[in-house]
Amino acid sequence: MVLGATPRAAIRLLVKAACSPVGWGLGLGVVGGAWLSRLTAPFLLGVDPVNPCVYGVTVALFLGVAVVSSAGAARRVRRISLSDALRD
């Protein structure tokens, strides 16, 4: 993993590695959702199918959950002694 890294650097590395796929998925999901919303537009009366507020809140919620969950896992990993982990 990270030999000789500070705990803060190790947590940052793990959170970045965990959130990168989430970011890609959110980006593709927003683009795909905006594109596919054209199919549902005829069924929505008086409602905008691409509401930027809904997309923004959804992206913020998913990113927040990803950061909190990966930071929690990184903090638990930080407590493990690297020499003990390498011996096993």
Write up this protein:
The chain is mainly α and 88 residues long. The protein has 3 helices and no strands. It has helices at 7-40, 52-78, 82-87. The longest helix has 34 residues, at 7-40. It is rod-shaped, with a radius of gyration of 19 Å.
Topology:
Layout: H1 7-40, H2 52-78, H3 82-87
Helix pairs in contact: 1-2
List keywords for this structure.
single chain, 88 residues, mainly alpha, 3 helices, rod-shaped
The shape is rod-shaped
Helix and strand pattern: HHH
| Span between termini | 15 Å
Tally of helical segments: 3
Low-confidence segments, given as residue ranges, are none
Strand content: under 5%
Number of extended strands = 0
Please state the average pLDDT score: 84
Oligomeric grouping of the chains: single chain
The value of Rg in angstroms is 19 Å
Q: What structural class is derived from the secondary structure elements?
A: mainly alpha
| Helix content, binned percent | over 70%
The profile of the biggest β sheet is: none
Précis, in short:
This protein has 88 residues and is an all-alpha fold.
